[in-house]
Each structure stands twice: as structure tokens, then as C-alpha cells.
Amino acid sequence: MTTALITGVTAGIGAAFARRLASGGYNLVLVARDTERLRQKATELHDRHGVEAAVLTADLATEEGITAVEDRLRDREHSVDLLVNNAGFGNKGRFLEVPVSDELTMLKVHCEAVLRLTSAAAESMRERGRGGVINLASVAAFFPRGTYGASKAWVTQFTQGAAKDMAGSGVRLMVLCPGFVRTEFHDRAGMNASSIPDWMWLDADRVVETALQDLARGKTLCVPDPRYKALLGASRLIPRSVLAHASSTTGRKYGPK
Ligand SMILES: NC(=O)c1ccc[n+]([C@@H]2O[C@H](COP(=O)([O-])OP(=O)(O)OC[C@H]3O[C@@H](n4cnc5c(N)ncnc54)[C@H](OP(=O)(O)O)[C@@H]3O)[C@@H](O)[C@H]2O)c1
């Protein structure tokens, strides 16, 4: 049986990956911080799909958390065939409103954890000559949008570069760049998302379906919706200063402090 390890699996896009992969017969390793929610998910997935779902509580903003997941990915007796680096969050506020320590936590989860977990997984996958890694970035990677956009730009460049370096090894790496997806993300970040027009919202299950199809096709970058593909194409024709204004205002209204 094949096994997938998914980070940030208690909600949103990670939970959608877990549902979709369990329905396809994957055994799962479920990673996040909330043990109770992880256990509930594991039971639910096991009962509904008959797969094994192991719980690994880890805070990817900490050294111990990252190490625990690295160790699991390096376990040659229980190999992981697909890694989904999905855990992530937004900070509440703009530059200088967010404490630098929170920005550094974001870089730890979005960049350091992704680098280390991708490396641990890809190394053992290369030995077996097969495997896949999906790293969650965002369309924000293509726009000036604070530390969040910058961290996702790093994920995008890193993943596409690593995919090129791993070409011919049997290991596929792909970066997934969705637009706005209805999840817990915006509430958790204290964002008031009411100004985001309906047409910009994507469904997590459809995002996941497209991502898995694109990984199977060997793509290294997945923008999982034609509307956002068109938006990205059009953005190349717009002056950077106009883009910076639009991207720093869209969906960045914050509730009371
Ligand atoms: N929603 C969007 O509009 C959107 C758009 C583009 C890209 N993305 C990206 O998609 C990914 C998933 O976001 P989502 O929208 O599904 O968000 P979400 O609903 O808020 O879920 C985030 C998940 O990440 C986990 N997580 C957060 N911090 C963690 C940490 N330090 N260690 C371990 N797990 C942690 C959370 O679980 P616990 O709290 O239990 O740890 C939760 O399961 C993120 O990387 C995000 O940047 C989201």
C-alpha cells in the first residue's frame, strides 16, 4: 500500500488532501499541532475508507516538531510515497504591525520546515526511484504581498528548482499555487475576507483534485483554476507599482486587534 504524509491536515486544504488520498486507498500520516483534532480525523478516515491513519503531533515552528517529521520521513521500513507540505498560516497585519518574531515563525513553518521535510523525503524517495512531493505556495507568490507572499515565492522557486535537479530520478516535485480557498485560514489570521468577490473563491476539494492530476502529469507548477491562470497572465502586463497596491489591499482587511 502507498503512504502519504500530509502536514496541516486538521483543516482546510490539508484535510481535503487527506479525504481524497484516503478515498484512493492511501495510508496516511497526519501531521498538525492539535492532537485531539488529529485523532478525530484519523478515526473518521479509517472508518470511512478502511485505511491506516497514523497521528503525528508536531509544531513545525519548532526544532523538535520539524525533527520528528524528518525522522518519520527517513524511516526506511515505513516509507512515505507522497509528502504534502501544506501547513501554513497568515499573520494579522501589515509590515511593522506584525512582530518580527511572528514573521520569523512564518519563515520557519513556510520555508525551513518545507526545505527540511522535502529534503528528508526526497532523499529516501530517490533511493527507491519513486515518490512525490507537493509543496503549498499560493498565487501570492507572484505578487508583492509582505512576508507571506515572499515566503510563498521562496517555496515556488525552491520546489521548481529541486524538481529540475531531481529530473530522471523517479521523484516528482510540484508546487501548488491556489488563489483564495474557503478554509479556516482567513479567520485564523484575523482577516475580514468579506471584500473578496465570490468569483475569486475556490473549493478545497477541487483544488486538491487538480493538484493530484497535475502531479500525475509531471507538472512542476500547478495553478489550479483557469481564472487565476488568466489573472497571472494579465498581471505580467500591469506595472509593478499598480500590482503592489492591488495585492497589498485585496483580502487584507483585519478585524479588531
Ligand atoms: N486558504 C487560502 O486562501 C490559501 C490560498 C493559497 C495558499 N494557501 C496555503 O494553503 C496551506 C493550507 O492553508 P489552509 O487554507 O488550508 O489553512 P487552514 O484551514 O487554516 O489550515 C492550516 C493547517 O495548518 C496547520 N498548522 C498551522 N500552523 C502549524 C504549525 N506551526 N505546525 C503544524 N501545523 C500547523 C493547522 O493545524 P493545527 O492548528 O492543528 O496545527 C491546519 O491544519 C497554507 O500553506 C496556506 O498558506 C491557502
Automatic annotation (TrEMBL):
Enzyme Commission code(s) on record: 1.-.-.-
Gene3D superfamilies on file: NAD(P)-binding Rossmann-like Domain
Q: Looking at the record's lineage, which domain of life comes first?
A: Bacteria
* Record keywords, A-Z: Oxidoreductase
> What one GO molecular function would you report for this record?
oxidoreductase activity
Would the keyword Oxidoreductase turn up in this protein's UniProt record?
A: yes
InterPro entries with a match to the protein in the record:
NAD(P)-bd_dom_sf (IPR036291), SDR_fam (IPR002347)
Answer whether the UniProt record assigns the keyword Oxidoreductase to this protein: yes
A Pfam family the protein falls into = adh_short
The record's similarity note reads:
Belongs to the short-chain dehydrogenases/reductases (SDR) family.
Q: Which PANTHER family does the annotation name? A: DEHYDROGENASE/REDUCTASE SDR FAMILY MEMBER 7B, SHORT-CHAIN DEHYDROGENASE-RELATED
Q: Protein name, please? A: SDR family oxidoreductase
Please give the organism. Answer: Streptomyces iconiensis
Organism phylogeny: Bacteria, Bacillati, Actinomycetota, Actinomycetes, Kitasatosporales
